[in-house]
Amino acid sequence: MKVFYALVLVIVLSSCQTENANYESYTSDLDDELITNLINASNGVGTSYYLLPDSDDFSRIPQDPLNPITAEKVALGKLLLHETALGGNPKMDEMNGQYTCATCHPVASGFFSGRRQGIGEGGIGFGVNGEGRTFNTEMPLDSVDIQAVRPPTLLNLAYQDVMLWNGQFGGTGTNAGTEAQWDHIPENAEGFQGVEVQAMQGQLEHRLKVNEEFVDSYNYRTMFDAAFYNIPQSERYTRKTAALAIAAFNRTILANQAPWQEYLKGDLEALNDQQKRGANLFFDKGLCYQCHNGPALKDQEFHAFGFGDFDGSLEAMVLPSIDFESVKKGRGGFTQNPDDDYKFKTPTLYNLADAGAFGHGGTFSTIREVVEYKNNGVAQSAEVPSTQLASQFGSSNLTSDEITDLTAFLKDALRDPDLLRYVPNTVNSGNCFPNNDEQSRIDLGCN
């Protein structure tokens, strides 16, 4: 059997035409088991089902037909995502140019928010991994740009057609039948997918500003012309084109250098035995694969696991203007379908080690805590009816040692160690990024 599964691994991997793969001529019992589990979990496809493409292999990256990925869009989007000069529509003039998309999605924390709650305008400081960002006490709290759920990572966004925890952004596929809820999301009606819609809506929500003045002030005209040469000049330098560039770049932010990816390509020594045991639990007894499957280890579904919500502390403030009851209902708050209540979109599991807080309310601080929570099956939120909870919740019956192994797989095997490749050395404005307030410049060494 050992020789058979080694042959299966080589055949499956060879079919992917992976260059320079370090194929092994033998497997261990752990590898035999893992290959079997991968074949079963992928309905017979095997290891290739879990491979992420290279970030410049645009033909293999899922994309919006209305926004084909090009090198020119990606190059522009990479800069715009980090360009703090985009923060050009603040409520307080003195905060102009201090924040951008990457403020709540810095690479230092794996493109997650560096703290439990992201703060755009109205935040100061960065710390080491973004954890040091705090509220600017000179700004009225009700004017601070904060959201009522934890910002997820930008990693592997290409593998979903809707965005946000409730999936409200995106006008195709998953959101078919939700048209009645699109009144304030015109881009859905245009047929754009979620990554593109979020990039458009996000500029409005987070007080960013792209227009011809911005383009010329910061020398972006040539890049816009190269990326959108087929769009009339009168429509070329806008929130929409900026969003299409940012979305194209976001689709290329893939954790394709994680040890797990190297293992799938044929390097059987990329994982240690503990991580392999954890992977076997993930794709078998732990039931994780039932929601976290495919290249990004996530489905396009919504599930209720009873996670807690933001608690109103300074680490998780909810503004009075927010319809928090709707937010807490997740997918149901958007669709208005009671069957969807308290269900949230499945997140990717890559680079969790960089995240620092977990769940849509950021109510856990370690990966192990989340594994233990799902294993125990006792809901944090008393508002979530037991009838809504996912069938996997509390049904895996893992031992303490198995939880340790599964945590090792999630923490280390799924961590891409070189996300800095997705960050520019500088942005055209010359500003500090991902934040440009005085304290952040000190923290980031920009002064």
From TrEMBL:
Keywords: Heme, Iron, Metal-binding, Oxidoreductase, Peroxidase, Signal. GO terms for molecular function: cytochrome-c peroxidase activity; electron transfer activity; heme binding; metal ion binding. One of its GO terms (cellular component) is cell envelope. Residues 1-21 form the signal peptide. It is found in: Cell envelope. Residues 273-414 form the Cytochrome c domain. The keyword Cell membrane does not apply. The keyword Heme applies. Pfam families: CCP_MauG (PF03150). Gene3D superfamilies: Cytochrome c-like domain (1.10.760.10). InterPro entries: Cyt_c-like_dom, Cyt_c-like_dom_sf, Cytochrome_c_Peroxidase/MauG, Di-haem_cyt_c_peroxidsae. Its main location: other. This is Di-heme cytochrome c peroxidase. It comes from Croceibacter atlanticus (strain ATCC BAA-628 / JCM 21780 / CIP 108009 / IAM 15332 / KCTC 12090 / HTCC2559).
